[in-house]
Each structure stands twice: as C-alpha cells, then as structure tokens.
C-alpha cells in the first residue's frame, strides 16, 4: 500500500511587484518559509522539484540550492505551462508516495510584473519580401490574427463562448459578474496583487481585450512564489503533535493531459482533461463535489471560471450559469470558489500558481485564514490548467489529529 | 517569365487549395477518420500512420468566437477569431467581411469560406488568405 502523504509546511510570498528581488530571491523566500512553517530544514528533504517557466532551461532548482542548501539531493526542474507549480508538487508527492523519500520540497516562482500579453505573435514578423511556406502548416506568414488567435485572452474567450453555444448563450454580463466576485473576494487577501473591489459597470466598461473578456476579467501578470514541504504519514507520526495537528492530508493528487477528440487541435479543449482529473481525484479522495468546503480553480479568465464549475462537477452538466447566479460560488455561498481573489485579482505568477492555490486551501483547513476564513472548512479542492494542455487537481483534508 | 510570375499565387497555408473553387483540405486518418490540418507524424487519436486528403465543406456554422482587440505587436486588430463547424469538421478561422462586433457576429451563424489577398512579394507572387463570411 502506497504511503499517505501530507503537506507539512507551505507558504506563498506576497504576489505583486518585487523589483528588488530576482527569481532566486523569491523562490528562496517561499522555500525557506515553507521549511520554517513545517519545522524542518533543507537537510530533512529527500527531493526538490522546482518550477520556473520563464527560465525553464536555467536549472532554477540548482540555483535555488546554491542559496538555501546544497545537500546533494535530486532536483527535478519541471515545466508544464500554468500547471508547472502543481507538477512540481505532484513530482514530490509521487516520490514520497512511492516510499523513495519521506520528505520533499516543491517550489514554484515567476517574475511577470509588467509582462504583456502571453502567447501569440508566433515567429517574429519579418519584412521578408518572398512568400516562403514554412512550418507544419506551410504558412507563408505568421498566422496569429489571420487564422484565429494564438493569445490566451482570445483562446479562453472562445472556451467560454463555446460553452454558451453548447448549453445556451451566456451573456457578457454574466462573465463580468464572475470577475466582480473574485475582485470582491480579494479585498480580504493581504497577499493578493490587487485587492480593489470593482463594480460590475467598471468591469464591463474597462478596456476590452478579447470579447467578452475585459482587462479586469483577465489574470493579472505579477511576481510571486510559493513552496510546500510534503511528508509521508509514517514520518509525520514521528514529528511533534503541533506539526501533526497542522499537517494537511493530500487525499488526491492528479495530473492529466488532453485526450484526443474532434476539434481539440483547433481550439484547445480545457474541459475533458479537467473533468477526467476531477473524476479521478474524487474517487481517490472518496469525496464528492458536495463535500467541498471551498475550491480554488483556474480562473485565468472569467470565461474559464464558468466552464470549470461544470468540469469540476460543482453543478449538473450545462448548469454553470444557474450555479453562478444562485450565489453558490461567493464566499458565503454553498461552494465558495476563489475566496483568495483568484488569478484575476490575487494574480498569476505562472509557476507559483499551482502551489499558491494549495496554500490557500491549507490556510483555511488549518483555520489560519483570518478575515477570509471559511468557517469550519474540512475539505478543499485546488485546480490548475496549463494550456497545451496539463491539468492538476488536488483534494486536501484537515488533519484528523 | 515576368508574366507568369505576376499571375502566380500562393496560399497562406498549404491546406488552403486555390483555384476556381477555393476550399480547405485535411489529412484524414485512413484507420479512424480523424482529421488534421497540419503535417502529421501519426494520428493523435489511434496512432495510425496512413492518411488521405479530404476536402472540407466550404460552408459551416460558428461554434465559438471572440473579438480580439489587443494582440501581439504586428497583428492588426480588431479581428474575429472563431471555430467553424464545417459539416462535422472543426475549422479555425477568422470571420471576415462583416463588422467585428457582437451585433454582427453570432453563435450559430451560417458562414462560408472566402479568400482575400495578403499582398504581393518581390517576385510578383500574391499570397491568398482565407476566412469565413456570413452566408
Ligand atoms: Zn487515426
């Protein structure tokens, strides 16, 4: 029987602008914070998994070791789009679950403040005066903007619009209201990059990026890091009562990719792999959507949050709009979603996101979330999706000790 | 030579077939029928390695769209990016020849393939792009 695994220590830095800190500084702050939170040191770690997408080939994990402890343990530098943080965590969880190590550290960090539009553009637009076919489509010039869009806002806008076509049109206003919720939630999160409440009118009248997503309905590029220490159950039982009491059980840890289906190479299908991950996760954890006290899902755009209500089975198939309109995903609703403010307001330092959302859940399950505490939270789910695609779903439970 | 060069055309992508009746062509897996527009190593559905060319319907229905107003440098905006259901085969394309706003572009709208000039290069070759316009 594989080992049960727990989060022993976890932390996230303030998300936002950190002009005085480089990638390693932010990663070190999160890593040392997670070790301190767990009452352990680098010398207790058997594995390090590190994610930093913007410098994915730089050996970020080893750079981090050079600052916080070169103990000779294996480092896995991982890159999996917006699921990079979840992939780092899952890598450590697999190592602990297999029994190869009894403790490990996962770190995700990104410096994105001031970064513009992500995705899109393709190869540099040249002034070449000869039409020369190249690439897998034999294109004579970049196709972004000529054959659809390669950029994230328009891609995820189409994901939301497609849901409307399939189940009944979703209004611009409904999508904007989702963003209104997350910005309102963020006012209680001191670590959020933005914590300003917007009115619905302000959101709808802001700059349009890709209809129906206006600027506040898009995830916020920012700097940030998050890190987690994972421990096996047998090791945890040798630690102090206080460590055992604060440890959070990882009831499910799942990573999926997008299986082939018609149209999936035309518009990325972010639905099936999320639904698959959720199904496996609920089964692993032995819980259902109704048992969840809170959910942090990948609201990279307001249009994405809507479809994931359905994909995570928080509502009956096709019922995402009714679910939202019922007030369920507000923090005082039946299934609070993104009480952190979500990616739209807390921010989205890509590789940090898949650990930061776990931190948010752990924070509530430990009863340490202060003003935004969801009272009595016992079970939570964290979801991320990286386009391409990769989906991570983790279900976490309050320690029974 | 200048005469023939002046009349030469090249499609924006190699799955656009020009001529009297411009249309798109896909690589269809001979084993499972999955259709792809790019050069293939194997089938993403069944891993088969045998493909045949099939013509794609030139009329279809808008299954999803967005109106892009902010894009990477060099990409002219606004434009309408869409997924078109062409008789059961999904196609990625822009909606063209209609104002790019939600009053003129609708989910479920019937559209048809249309081509347009992307300009002529130094050798006199004209590149031809495609989009879908209201039918
Ligand atoms: Zn096949």
Automatic annotation (TrEMBL), chain A:
Domain Thiolase N-terminal, first and last residues per copy: 5-113
Classification via InterPro entries: Thiolase, Thiolase-like, Thiolase_C_2, Thiolase_N
All residue ranges annotated as the Thiolase C-terminal domain in the record: 272-397
GO molecular function: acyltransferase activity, transferring groups other than amino-acyl groups
A UniProt-annotated Pfam family: Thiolase_N
Protein name: Unannotated protein
Species of origin: freshwater metagenome
UniProtKB/TrEMBL annotation, chain B:
One Pfam entry name: zf-ChsH2
Residue stretches making up the ChsH2 rubredoxin-like zinc ribbon domain: 19-52
Xref: InterPro entries: ChsH2_C, ChsH2_Znr, NA-bd_OB-fold, Thioester_dehydratase-like
UniProt domain ChsH2 C-terminal OB-fold: residue ranges: 54-114
Protein name stated in the entry: Unannotated protein
Organism of origin: freshwater metagenome
């Amino acid at each position: 029987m594989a080992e049960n695994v727990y989060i022993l220590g976890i932390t996230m830095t303030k998300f936002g602008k950190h002009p005085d800190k480089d990638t390693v500084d932010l990663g070190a702050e999160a890593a040392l914070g997670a070790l301190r939170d767990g009452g352990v040191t680098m010398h207790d770690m058997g594995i390090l998994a590190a994610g930093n997408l913007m410098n994915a080939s730089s050996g970020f994990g080893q750079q981090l070791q050079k600052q916080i402890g070169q103990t000779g343990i294996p480092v896995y530098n991982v890159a999996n789009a917006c699921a990079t943080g979840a992939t780092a965590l899952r890598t450590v969880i697999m190592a602990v679950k297999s029994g190869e190590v009894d403790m490990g550290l996962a770190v995700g960090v990104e410096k994105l403040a001031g970064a513009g539009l992500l995705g899109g553009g393709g190869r540099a637009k040249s002034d070449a005066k000869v039409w020369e076919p190249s690439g897998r489509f034999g294109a004579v010039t970049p196709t972004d903007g000529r054959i659809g869009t390669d950029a994230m806002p328009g891609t995820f806008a189409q994901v939301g619009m497609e849901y409307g076509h399939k189940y009944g049109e979703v209004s611009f206003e409904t999508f904007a209201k989702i963003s209104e919720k997350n910005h309102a939630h963020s006012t209680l999160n001191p670590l959020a990059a933005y914590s300003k409440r917007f009115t619905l009118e302000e959101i709808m009248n802001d700059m349009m990026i890709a209809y129906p997503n206006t600027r506040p309905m898009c995830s916020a590029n920012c700097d940030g890091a998050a890190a987690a220490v994972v421990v096996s159950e047998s090791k945890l039982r040798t630690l102090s009562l206080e460590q055992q009491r604060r440890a959070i059980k990882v009831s499910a840890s799942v990573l999926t990719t997008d299986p082939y289906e018609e149209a999936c190479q035309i518009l990325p299908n972010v639905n099936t792999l999320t639904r698959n991950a959720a199904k496996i996760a609920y089964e692993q954890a032995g819980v259902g959507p109704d048992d969840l006290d809170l959910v942090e899902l990948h609201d990279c755009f307001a249009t994405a949050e809507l479809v994931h209500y359905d994909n995570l089975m928080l509502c009956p198939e096709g019922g995402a709009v009714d679910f939202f309109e019922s007030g369920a995903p507000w923090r005082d609703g039946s299934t609070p979603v993104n009480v952190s403010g979500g990616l739209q307001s807390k921010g989205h330092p890509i590789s940090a996101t898949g650990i930061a959302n776990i931190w948010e859940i752990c924070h509530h399950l430990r009863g340490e979330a202060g003003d935004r505490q969801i009272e009595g939270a016992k079970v939570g789910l964290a979801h991320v999706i990286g386009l391409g695609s990769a989906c991570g779903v983790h279900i976490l439970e309050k320690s029974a000790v | 030579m200048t005469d023939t060069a002046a009349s030469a055309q090249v499609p924006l992508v190699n799955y656009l077939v020009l001529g009297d009746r411009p249309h798109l062509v896909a690589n269809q897996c001979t084993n499972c029928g999955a259709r792809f527009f790019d050069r293939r190593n194997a089938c993403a559905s069944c891993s088969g390695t045998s493909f045949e060319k099939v013509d794609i319907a030139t009329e279809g229905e808008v299954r999803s769209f967005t109106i892009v107003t902010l894009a990477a440098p060099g990409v002219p905006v606004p434009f309408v990016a869409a997924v078109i259901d062409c008789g059961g085969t999904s196609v990625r394309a822009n909606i063209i020849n209609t104002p790019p706003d939600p009053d003129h572009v609708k989910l479920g709208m019937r559209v048809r393939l249309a081509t347009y000039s992307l300009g002529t290069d130094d050798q006199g070759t004209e590149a031809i792009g495609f989009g879908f316009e209201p039918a």
